[in-house]
Amino acid sequence: MSVFEIKHARKSFGDLEVLKDISVSVEQGEVVAILGPSGSGKSTFLRCATMLEELDGGSLCYGSRFAAKDENGKSVYVSRKERHKLYAQFGLVFQNFNLFPHYSVMENIINPLMVVQHMKKPEALERGKALLEKMGLSDKGDYYPCQLSGGQQQRVSIARALAMNSNILFFDEPTSALDPELTMEILRVIRNLAAENMTMVIVTHEIEFARSVADRVIFMADGIIVEEGKPEDVIDNPSNERTQAFLKKFE
Ligand code: ADP
Ligand code: MG
């Protein structure tokens, strides 16, 4: 059974049709990389997948639990209460880290645990400490985000996403706000998660990284999936001319 499945997803902003019938299903332990030009709808896809935006049409489910069903071409969402329960099913790591600036590093990690999962503070702190250690940030719990490098901030936001023990993590260009050295630092962290069998969907422009870490690559353009398959097929031997043109820019 898939961990995550979105079927026939459609999303428009006014007259702009951003997602046009996108279907993606992700299996346990699978790493899926999404490539595509800027403006093709990758972030919108992730925002709909994580319920930050509502689909206009199509269905969305996590494991056997539906967030939205498609009824006559229109997405019908479960109740607010049911939706809230689904938030623990996934984590999202943003391009710009999205940490709360006025909370300490530790508070950024444990507050969602206490609020969403109603975890008691001592237990949340224990998990927070273990995650900071895993991210090589044991001594940074009392710091504020602005006191950390971009790479460190992104590691905090990965720790925050991991804290929920979610079934799947989504990443939206996790390294695009970082310089090359810090990019390598974050890619290493994600690679380690892949080695631990974490299920992940990663939007990235790091082609080499996608080739080496992904089980499957999806190439998106203009709100549709143009091509998908194994990295060696999509990246090294693309059959679609739009994929070819996009990848040429990275040579
Ligand atoms: P990508 O992440 O692939 O660069 P996006 O999903 O961010 O693409 O954007 C796809 C298109 O949707 C762009 O034309 C963008 O301007 C538009 N768009 C995204 N979010 C909104 C929004 N909240 N309101 C209006 N237009 C939006
Ligand atoms: Mg984007």
UniProtKB/TrEMBL annotation:
Q: Name one GO cellular component term.
A: plasma membrane
Topology relative to the lipid bilayer, per the entry, is:
Peripheral membrane protein
Signal peptide segment: none
Q: What SUPFAM superfamilies is this protein classified in?
A: P-loop containing nucleoside triphosphate hydrolases
Q: What is its main location?
A: membrane
Q: Does the keyword Mitochondrion apply?
A: no
- Tell me the organism: Ruminococcus champanellensis (strain DSM 18848 / JCM 17042 / KCTC 15320 / 18P13)
Entry keywords, A to Z: ATP-binding, Cell membrane, Hydrolase, Membrane, Nucleotide-binding, Transport
Q: Where is the ABC transporter domain?
A: 4-247
GO molecular function terms listed in the Swiss-Prot or TrEMBL record? ABC-type amino acid transporter activity; ATP binding; ATP hydrolysis activity
Write out the annotated subcellular location. Cell membrane
Write down the InterPro entries for this protein, in alphabetical order: AAA+_ATPase, ABC_ATPase_HisP-typ, ABC_transporter-like_ATP-bd, ABC_transporter-like_CS, MetN_ABC_transporter-like, P-loop_NTPase
Superkingdom in the source lineage:
Bacteria
Q: Which PROSITE patterns match?
A: ABC_TRANSPORTER_1 (PS00211), ABC_TRANSPORTER_2 (PS50893)
Its EC number(s): 3.6.3.-, 3.6.3.21
Protein name per UniProt = Amino acid ABC transporter ATP-binding protein, PAAT family (TC 3.A.1.3.-)
